[in-house]
# Entry
Amino acid sequence: MSEEKPILSVRNLKTYFDVTKGIFTKKQIVKAVDDVSFDVMENETFGLVGESGCGKTTLGRTIVKLYEPESGSIEFQGKDIAKLHGKELISFRKDMQMIFQDPYASLNPRMTVGEIIKEPMIIHNIYNTDEEREQRVVELLKIVGLKPDHIRRYPAEFSGGQRQRVGIARALAVNPKFIVCDEPISALDVSIQAQVVNLLKDIQKEMGLSYLFIAHDLSMVKHISDRIGVMYLGHLVECGPSNDVYHRPLHPYTIALLSAIPIPDPDVAKNKQRIVLGGEVPSPINPPEGCPFCTRCTRATERCHKERPKPIQVGTRTVACHLYEK
Ligand code: SF4
# Structure
């Protein structure tokens, strides 16, 4: 983290979906993101982790304005994105890009790689001539580790890792300031994952980008992130510097998540105690009244079932758990 200046500020964000079936049935609301607040600094990577269905992808999509929030605010470069219109909205769309989870589904199979990367340049009117655009595509292909002659090929001719590199080049085509990386490595082979993460790190250093890096693998998130936010059932339950969260987790859910990560050293692994979370993740349509984690937490008390813990500052991080209240 080089500068302590937020490029993105999310405050009390709620994204709900009405999933009521039929007009005579009781209203059913999925609270996918429920009262989430955090900042992402300039040139920083903020990692967002949690099990699938915890709301992290919905949060990422709300930030890029693919979903409308129920309430709360998202400020990008000091401006509330809900109030952006006309030129300001176009400029926001250019500055905030997204890399998608599935490199197979996110690229149009009928377009060549060159056309895919050029498309956002044309939409945002970035270069005057097709020659200039073509030149930039070749540069971007080199930056992401592909060859200039890949420009005329189709997505089907590439491996998963190469396709994700095309997705990264497409996101970079409009010179963004912020990229939401939505599980960019989860569909890739383990051997390719580290390559893509290292590529993203190198590009960040070179171009001064900020990332929101969404993943369910805490060890990979730790590798790329300056700070980590842990989500559970639509709530941010712990947030702080990557090393602190990874090596000294506070929230019982973070502790359980970390205990599930395999350790390559058999001597260390022998002494490690794995916490197996019991029970199911509650439905976001009908979340527990008190702490969202109370149905699976081994340390839950009566109070946890009745009262929702508020995020409090504990040293370098915020934790939403009654155990840390004084
Ligand atoms: Fe567990 Fe209670 Fe803390 Fe929730 S508030 S994580 S149930 S101890």
